[in-house]
Every structure is written in C-alpha cells, then in structure tokens.
Amino acid sequence: MKKKFLYTLFFISGIAAVESCTKLNEEILDEASVAGLTDKQLAEGTIAPVYSVLPSLFQHTQYFALQEISTDEAILPYRGGTDWGDNGIYISLHKHETTSGDPNVRNVWNNIVLGLSRSVTAISTLATNTDPNAKIFLAEARAMRAYYNLMTLDLFGIAFQKEDPKETSTVLRGEEAIEYIKSELLAAEPQLETTSGPGRLSKAGAWGLLARLHLNAAIYRDRYSTNPAFKAEDMDKVIEYCDKIINSGQFELASEYFSIFNDNNHTNKELIFAVDQRADLNGHNRMAYFSLSGDQFPLPAYTGANGTDGPAITPDFYQTWVAANAPLDPAAADPRFYKENLTVYSNPADSCVDAANFHINRGILRGQQYGLTKNPDGSFKKCPDGKMKVSKLYNATRSRPDLPVNFTEFIDFTVPGSNYNTGYRVEKYEFSRGSVSGRNFGEHDIIILRLADAYLMRAEAKLRKSNDVAGALADVNIVRAARTARIIAPPLADMSLDILFRERGFEFYWEHQRRTDMIRFGKYEGTWTEKNNSDPKKRIFPIPQTAIDGASNLPGYLVQNEGY
C-alpha cells in the first residue's frame, strides 16, 4: 500500500509538471509523506514512475501516429465517413499539414515532458538513497532522461537540460543538444546493469541509443539541409556501439520473425530495450487491434474483442515489397511479410479449428479475410464437432453486411478509398490471448531497440563512412539469413543506401522508426499516396501551442519551429 501511495504522489506531481509544460517543475516530496518506507522501497518507488510514462507514450495514437502515419508506411482515412475522422488530424498528419493544436502532437509532448520531469525528480531523490540498488536506478533515471531528450530532439528539434527540480530547464538545440544527450548516456553507462531485462535500460540499451544518436547527428545538427554531413567520427561511433551490442553475446536474432512480437516476447533474446507490457504489469496498448477490421475477431473466448479498421499500408510501401521480390509474391519470398496461421486461406476445406489453435494470420494482410462469425444471439458459430467455424468475413459490424472484408491495395482519402475494406492491413504484434478484452491490453512488449537494428545501423554507418559495400551487405544478409523458421529470404547481391532504406522498411515496419529513417535517407519530402508536400520544415513537428502558452511568462523561452 505504501508503494502505491508513493507512486501516486509522483504521478500527481508529474501531472503538475505537464500543466507547467517545459519548465519541468516537479514538487520535491516532503519526507514526512513517505515516513516509514525503507530506502529500498523509496528507490523502487522513485524509478518506477520514470518508466511508467512509456506505455501511454507508445499508445497507437501517440508516438506511433507521429512516426508512422506521417510517412509512406501508414495511412488512416476517414473510414466509411464515420470512423477515425477526428477532425481530420490523421489526414493532416499524413499530408504534412499538422498544426500546433494537434492533440496527438500535444499528447506526445506532454508525455515526454512528464517522463523528463519524473527522471529529474528520480535523479535528485536517488542521489542520497543508501539502498545498494540506488546507484543503478540513478544511472537508469539519467539514461532515461537522455532517452526522453533524444525523443524531443528527434520530434521537435529541442532538448531540455535540467538538474535541480526547482530550476527552469535550459532549452538546447543542434550540437549542444547532441553533446548533452551523449554526455548523459556516457555518464550513466558504467553504472547500468549488463542484464536487467528489456523493460529497463541496460548497458546495451545505452549503446543502442548512442548509436542511434550518432547515426542521426547530421540531421540534428542541420535540420533542413539538402545534403547533411554525416561525419566519419559519428559513423565510427555507430560501428563501435553496434559492435559492443553484437559482440556482447547477450542477444540472438530470432529464427521466427513474428515471435519477436508475440505476447511472450519479454524473454525474446532479440530485444534490447522495450516497453514492458506484460499482463501482470497492466500494460495498455492497441497495436494489435489498431489495423484490423471490425469484423475480425481473434479470440474465440471473447466475442467483444475485434479490430477497429484503423490504418493500412500505402500502395507505395506495398509496391516496394513487390519490386524487391519479383517475380515471387512477397509472402513466398520474405518471412517478414506474412505468416499464415489459419490454413483455410490455402485449403478452403480447413474451416473447423479448435479454439485453442485459432490464431489469426500475421504480417501484412491482403485480400478476402476469413475468421469467426456470429450467430443471431451474438455467440460465435461452431462446427457440428464443437470446433470454431471459420468463414468468409463481411463488414457486418459496420452495418455493411454486403461488403466483404476483402482488403485491397487501393486506399486514399476519397470516399471510395476510405471504405472499410480498403488498404492492406498490418497484424505484426500478436493480438493478446490473455486479456479479457484483447483490444485494450496488449501483453507484448513494444520494442524500442532490438538486435537487428544494431546490424542495420552498423551497415548504414559502413556505407556512409567509406562506402564499405561488402561490410554493409554482410550485416544485412546476416539478419535476412537468421529468419529460418519458415521460408528463408535469399541473400542480397548488392548494397546501397537506397537498398538499405528499403531493407529497413521490411525489417522495422510498424515499429516507430519510419519517419526518422525517411528524414535521414532524404525521402521525407517525397511524394506518395495522398502526400505531395515537399516542405523540409515539416521534418519536425510544431511545439504545441499549449506548451508555448504555458511558458509565456518566460519571454523567448519557447520559440515555435519554423514553418508553423
């Protein structure tokens, strides 16, 4: 009970920090309010809130929306003229017309600021804690402060330096921000644990964040450059930190690609750093249900667990798969594209499935969909032997029983292109089988860093530093060759930055990386379905107007980004 009380105190003070925006004011707890708690309890209760921001930040309408729907990977139309209209914010986001009043941008900002605020409080509090784990937690809080600042730098072009919770933070940009974040990660790394599970920052997590910082440093130094200068010394550091991860022996590339995104992925050896979403920790995310049809019901035990007809991939992104694997279909050539779990797709006679063995297909879903359908009383239909009946799906929940759930490549913002059946869908993360709703509570950890990224970051650094085609090609092919559980993707014969960009799309689609990748590879001002805005000022998002208003008593403290 005392731990819950302590957590509540931190949560309330964190809310105050959000309301005061970037001043990052955090109330120092009165010692009397936590009287009777041991140093161990205080230390654990101090570090927990630092991480507890992540589940909200990684909800489907927050960081995912900014990183994916703004790109060529995801598009979210006004479905059927009734769903996901949301005052046009997802259409604007995709078209690069987002404004400073956008609620998703504001929510992401507020959650990152809350994470920064809690990190500063934890650093201040843990500095005098005598528990043996306090030094480790202090290092984690410091590294998490660096991670949250890396997010603000990437998304909004600024970072915040603050040591004393009672002081106003200093706004940093460009080289100053890069050096500050780097120094914080380097200072924390020696005290971080080697093995602490993917839900906490370890040494390898810090190495991965340092590699990511150096890889993007050229963009962070000069936001709107048409020819960013990727320095050799930065690329050397990317290679150095990725070498540390790869050579540590702690991590393994998964043989089954989709196992990385299963409910039980917390113990998957490919994960380096992730949002801990195990059911006993009350993880809350909707990554699995977000793209599915409202008439796809993945859980035989729960008739209310279905999809929401959210985003699909663009035809442009789909065609990159087609071009890369022709003349083979992508599903037959690359194990990352698709995994068939319901055999009715390849054998129509297999239409009766044990409830325990009913798993929907994974990856990119195309064409006519099959699954569980309902009786008039709302129960799922069954075969005479009691097994679950698998049938052709129609959009019955959308009052369109005449419209098959037949996902098309075609999707756009027109009325026909916004229908419930348009766009190929993504079921990358496993639909929770342990949650009573399946929709809201996802047990899978949401990945921030994994081993494959160390290989592909290293490959990119080799190309950018010295055009080491052979070295980069070897790294990419190691990742491709590791997925041996079903089909094995053939090795690539050549490598370039364009091929590597394409490969990163195949490996990390729907993993919150596309926008950052597109900017770094010079693709973000390009044209794709329903997007032709070429303004480089849109590489970063507007600072929310609420944040600027909240800091109005400090003239010049927050300046809106150019172009907004």
Tell me what you see in this structure.
The chain has 564 residues and is mainly alpha-helical. It is 38% helix and 8% strand. It contains 17 helices and 14 strands. The protein has helices at residues 2-19, 39-52, 54-57, 63-69, 89-94, 103-126, 134-156, 174-188, 203-221, 232-247, 315-325, 330-333, 451-466, 469-482, 497-508, 514-520, 545-550; strands spanning 159-161, 170-172, 271-275, 338-339, 352-353, 362-365, 367-368, 370-372, 388-392, 394-395, 400-404, 406-407, 425-427, 446-450. It has a three-stranded antiparallel β-sheet with strand order 4-6-13. Strands 5-9-8 form a three-stranded antiparallel β-sheet, with no helix packed on it. A hairpin with an 8-residue loop joins strand 1 (159-161) and strand 2. Helix 7 (134-156) runs antiparallel to helix 8 (174-188). It is globular, with a radius of gyration of 24 Å. The protein starts with a helix and ends in a 14-residue tail after the last helix. The model is unreliable at 1-32 (pLDDT under 50).
Q: Which short descriptors sum up this protein?
A:
globular, three-stranded antiparallel sheet, 564 residues, mainly alpha, 14 strands, single chain
Question: What is the element layout, followed by pairings?
Answer:
Elements (H helix, E strand, L loop, with lengths): L1 H18 L19 H14 L1 H4 L5 H7 L19 H6 L8 H24 L7 H23 L2 E3 L8 E3 L1 H15 L14 H19 L10 H16 L23 E5 L39 H11 L4 H4 L4 E2 L12 E2 L8 E4 L1 E2 L1 E3 L15 E5 L1 E2 L4 E5 L1 E2 L17 E3 L18 E5 H16 L2 H14 L14 H12 L5 H7 L24 H6 L14
Antiparallel strand pairs: 1-2, 3-14, 4-6, 5-9, 6-13, 7-12, 8-9, 10-11
